């Protein structure tokens, strides 16, 4: 794969505020591409196909797995979620900062495949109680679904040290500033892998 752009992976328990934070910081990040995942979960009220996710059946998703369409995929809370390879390749070749909102399993896979392009950040609420409150206040999921997400959160939090950075999304303004700083550094860091080009240009000048 041609390596020109950079990847920023954002993970954290469902309901911690990843989407809210991202919407808040997009205006301050230049030349990014948000990776729209494919999922088998039902769209929430207000979500749009092709904007928030591509919504497909389990059969279609399994077909795509067989055909090798995914850079990574995982089963989270009983649904499939995956990142299609093609648009990512295209965005990277254009030098974009590709932003992924994926779970801890997806993070491990992308790290293994594209380690030198990746910067990652784990986002969470100050406490599990606060997470529960946000999930109820968001009012998009049933009690059973929320309970599943909280169970998953108890496991996911254990992986936070595998990430480069950690943000506690308590004060939205403060957390947004931290995320912008991390997005900027992700680009700078990815320049490290252009070793041959950098040396060649440096010697010629
Ligand atoms: P995620 O994308 O991680 O699942 P959302 O962005 O949907 O989470 O946020 C979950 C809920 O928490 C939403 O109702 C959102 O308005 C709220 N929220 C997000 N950030 C904060 C914050 N810093 N303080 C209080 N509530 C927040
Ligand atoms: P939600 O259903 O709340 O939108 O997302 C549930 C979880 O799935 C979140 O932790 C989110 O980061 C994760 N997720 C979303 N898209 C992908 C994906 O393409 N791959 C993986 N591995 N996880 C994803």
Structure description:
This protein has 205 residues and is α/β, with parallel strands linked by helices. The chain has a domain at 6-35 and 96-204: Rossmann fold, CATH 3.40.50.300. Helices cover 44% and strands 20% of the residues. The chain contains eight helices and nine strands. Strands 2-7-1-8-9 form a five-stranded parallel sheet, sandwiched between helices. Strands 4-3-6-5 form a four-stranded mixed sheet. The protein is globular and about 65 Å long. 31% of the residues are buried. The site of adenosine-5'-diphosphate has 13 residues, from helix 1 and helix 5.
Summarize the structure.
The chain has 205 residues and is of the alpha/beta class. The chain is 44% helix and 20% strand.
Work out the radius of gyration: 18 Å
Q: Give the end-to-end Cα distance, rounded to a whole number of Å.
A: 28 Å
Shape: globular
What integer is the average pLDDT? 94
Q: Class of the domain at 6-35 and 96-204, according to the CATH hierarchy? A: Alpha Beta
Structure keywords:
205 residues; globular; binds adenosine-5'-diphosphate; 4-stranded mixed sheet; binds guanosine-5'-monophosphate; 5-stranded parallel sheet; 9 strands; Rossmann fold
Secondary structure elements and their pairing?
Layout lengths: L5 E6 L6 H8 L6 E3 L3 E2 L14 E2 L2 H9 L3 E7 L2 E6 H9 L3 E5 L2 H11 L3 E7 L3 H11 L4 H14 L8 E4 L3 H19 L4 H10 L1
Parallel strand pairs: 1-7, 1-8, 2-7, 3-4, 8-9
Antiparallel strand pairs: 3-6, 5-6
This protein binds adenosine-5'-diphosphate and guanosine-5'-monophosphate.
């Amino acid at each position: 794969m041609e390596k020109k752009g950079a990847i920023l992976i954002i993970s954290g328990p469902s309901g911690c505020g990843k989407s809210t934070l991202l919407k808040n910081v997009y205006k301050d990040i230049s030349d990014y591409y948000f990776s729209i995942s494919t999922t088998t979960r039902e769209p929430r009220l207000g979500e749009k196909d092709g904007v928030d996710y591509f919504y497909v059946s389990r059969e279609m998703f399994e077909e795509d797995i067989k055909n090798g369409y995914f850079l990574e995929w995982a089963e989270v809370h009983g649904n499939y979620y995956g990142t299609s390879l093609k648009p990512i390749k295209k965005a990277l070749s254009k030098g974009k900062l590709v932003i992924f909102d994926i779970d801890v399993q997806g993070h491990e896979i992308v790290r293994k495949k594209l380690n030198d392009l990746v910067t990652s950040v784990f986002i969470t609420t100050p406490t599990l109680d606060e997470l529960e409150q946000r999930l109820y206040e968001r009012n998009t999921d049933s009690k059973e679904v929320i309970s599943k997400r909280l169970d998953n959160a108890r496991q996911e939090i254990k992986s936070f040290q595998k990430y480069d950075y950690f943000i506690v999304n308590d004060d939205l303004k403060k957390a947004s500033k931290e995320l912008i700083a991390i997005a900027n550094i992700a680009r700078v860091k990815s320049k490290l892998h252009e070793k041959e080009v950098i040396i060649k240009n440096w010697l010629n000048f």
